[in-house]
Amino acid sequence: MSQTIQLIVGLGNPGKEYAKTRHNAGTWLVSALAEQHRATWQATSKLHALTTTVIIDNQDCRLLIPTTYMNLSGQAVQAATHYYKITPEQLLVVHDEIDLSVGVVRIKIGGGHGGHNGLRDIDAKLGTQKYTRIRIGVGRPAHAKQVVDYVLHEPSRHEMIDIERAIGEAYNVLPMLLAGDSARAMQQLHTED
After folding, report:
1. Is the pLDDT of residue 1 over 50?
2. What is the pLDDT of residue 2?
3. Which residue range(s) make up the domain with 24?
4. Active site members
5. CA dist 14 to 39, 41, 94, Å?
6. DSSP string of 47-82?
7. Residue 7's pLDDT band (cuts 50, 70, 90)
8. Does 1 map to a domain?
9. Within a domain: residue 85?
10. 3-state class of 1 per DSSP?
């Protein structure tokens, strides 16, 4: 059993022009979680984020969406973990993942940032990679030079259906992750395909 998750962070870029882009897939899951629990977001300037709290299976869990751009995500995560006295092991970061096919969702604990600028900044600010991630597959473009443009555009309607299904699958294992049973959450999520 690993530590219980006390903070869920959804990565993305702020502003309406980015809200529906692939890079904001992390915010989609965290926003859906808040909506499901009828939680109200508060802009918290000292945390560089929108914050709220939900109760999942009788456990309080803080939700956070950074209001910085993706490459500065670590600012909000560092501020929140310090303010709430949360260890990296109690942190869950939800993000888009180009190394997974559209609609595939995976849990990963620790490991490198894989070129993801949000994770890169979180790693640098926390000084560790020992936190849990939910990786939402958005696919990758044919050429590496197109990655930035690709993640900053909206998925097709067909892709969005697959991404929303993946978010639903991730949502279903959140109670296990929050309870510290990452092994069971991984087993369920990684065998659904």
Report:
1. no
2. 55
3. 7-190
4. 23
5. 19, 14, 15
6. GTEEEEEEEETTEEEEEEEESS-GGGHHHHHHHHHH
7. very high
8. no
9. yes
10. coil
